[in-house]
Every structure is written in C-alpha cells, then in structure tokens.
Amino acid sequence: MGGGYTRDVGRLCRGLANSHLVITARDGSGTLLGLARTISDDEHVCYVQDVVVNPAYHRQGVGRSLVEHLMRRYSHCRFFLLSTDHESSPEGKRNHAFYRSLGFLSYEEKEMAGFGLPRNRPDLRNAES
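Predicted structure:
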C-alpha cells in the first residue's frame, strides 16, 4: 500500500475494520499479493475503496481477479463506483487503462457527475460547535 496508508497503522487497521468487505489474493504459501476493499450499503451503492497489488505481481491478473470478484459480488447494486488518480499523474495512465479494460467508464461517459471535498482540509471531528 502507498505511504499514505502505512504511515499510520492504527488508521489503516480502523479503515480495514470499517470496510464492508475486504478480499485478498495470496500465493500458495499464503503471501499477500494484493487486496481490495469496499464500502457499501449492499443494496444501492458499492464503492471500491482500494485495489492494491504488490508491484512485483502487477500484470499477472491479481488486480483483475480482485475487481472481477467484486463486480460479481455487487452486481445487484445500482452504482458500482471507484475513484483513482487523474490520468496525468504518475500512475494515472496505467490505472485508467486497467479499469477501462474491465469495462469501467468515466462519470462523464456515464452521464453522471462526481464531487468531493479537497484532500487537505482540517479534521473537525473534535472541534467545538
């Protein structure tokens, strides 16, 4: 996983525990090759939170198997969504090609819009109202 995830192990563990589903791909000896996790109400929306594959196993079908499993598992949900880095980012072009190879479309192509708050904003959970 990227440095943003592993910097705070407690936060990483809470994120995994609060997921709807976490699936892993392992080799015959049990070594973790990749994982994927979702956030979902399991009725209307499934949001693929993470698809992470050890770089040594890229282009070997690990990520494809994980995502295809999730696509089947949540095929009943109206929205099956994910976010990834912009195509101009260092990994963006590769990520976009990967998701497109699985049939994903951009929000614009689906005649939808997606919105999000800026990444860097203050944590107001413990602020006085």
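Summary: The mean pLDDT is 91.
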